[in-house]
Specification:
Blueprint lengths: L1 H21 L19 E2 L5 E4 L5 E3 L14 H18 L1
Antiparallel strand pairs: 1-2, 2-3
């Protein structure tokens, strides 16, 4: 009976150590401190963005990209210019 419990405890120990090796070790010196609440609960959901899980402080360091300006003209302006050009050529001849 002693051998069974020793084998069982050894199996549990191996599973525990294997599981512990799969989880990454995070040192407290590498954790970011929240400037609002001072806790080390800041995560980065994507590059340049930081979010505190304790006080919901959010900061985004990515520059804001302005939307591209809408193009002037289009098909209507091109047709208007073409008709104007043809009318000018017809008047000159």
């Amino acid at each position: 009976m002693l051998k069974k419990s020793t084998a069982l405890s050894r199996a549990v120990e191996v599973v525990f150590i294997t599981k512990a090796m799969q989880t990454p070790l995070v040192l407290s010196s590498t954790l970011l401190e929240c400037p609002s609440c001072g806790k080390h609960t800041v995560v980065s959901p994507h590059e340049g963005a930081y979010h505190c899980l304790s006080c919901d402080f959010v900061r985004n360091f990515n520059p804001v990209t302005e939307p591209m300006p809408k193009e002037e003209g289009g098909l209507g302006a091109m047709l208007f210019a073409s008709v104007g050009f043809l009318l000018t050529v017809a008047l000159i001849l």
